[in-house]
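#lab-general

N.A. 3:47 PM
ok so I finally got the sequence cleaned up, no stray characters, all 237 residues accounted for. can someone with queue access submit it? mine expired

B.Y. 3:52 PM
send it over

N.A. 3:53 PM
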Amino acid sequence: MEANHILLVEDDKEIREGIEIYLRSQGYEVFQAADGVEGLKVLEREEIHLAIVDVMMPRMDGITMTVKLRETHDFPVIILSAKSEEVDKIMGLNIGADDYVSKPFTPMELLARVNSQLRRYKKYMDMLEAKEQKEKSNVYSIGGLELNEDTVEVTVDEKPAKLTPIEFKILALLMKNPGRVFSAEEIYERVWNERAINTDTIMVHVRKIREKIEINPKEPKYLKVVWGVGYKIEKQA
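B.Y. 4:20 PM
back already:
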């Protein structure tokens, strides 16, 4: 398993190196920075999973750095400070930090905070990934044609195509089964949920769908007719 990357931003070199030695002994990969300016530069070139940031530093303090990194990153941030006043703790948490450790602290205390925050962040990322996968499971793409069942939207080359509810259902049926030919009767029974008696309406709907999703409806790229058999969505390379 790949080691988690920790950004350690602390102007005191002895403290910085002491923390790094301990974190590396626990399997973490550590990137050092002496102030907020250096810390932000590290973020530009490295993938970071957690940051430990001292409050009082030259050039750019930890509060300012945390505010800036929160504009683009959501990984956990642990604030370090020699000050233990409640106001400093509240300020750190209010500007986007996830935890606060007062100096002096023991390596075991800091490690416990690091482990806790990384567990929470992993759980959050796993939930986010699961949500994205669920959303993607209801999105069907064929070339530049995309249909989203959750939002009931269709786009062609990222441009919206406005389909009626029936047109959407017909297209969804075909896109879920690319390359498969559906007869007009089967499309009718699947979409209307009743026995097909007159399927002339399918031809009309297919023509309208083509007008909305094809650049040239007379030479369709996606929705093809298999003469004497039915209709299909052409697979795209």
